[in-house]
Amino acid sequence: MDKQTATKYVTIVIDNLEGGYYHPDMKSKLKGGELMMDSGETMYGLDRKAGAPGVTVGASQEAFWRTIDTYYGKHHADTAYYADMAAGKKADIPATVGQTLKAYAADIILQLFNDYATRYKLDPSAAQKIFSDPALTLQFFYAVYNGPVAFGKFVEVMNDAYSKGTQDARALYQLLQAKRRTMGSGEYGNKLYRTGADKIDQIIKKYFGLDYADGTASATSGGSGAKWLLIALAAAGVVYFIIKK
Question: What is the value of pTM for the model shown?
Answer without folding.
Answer: 0.86
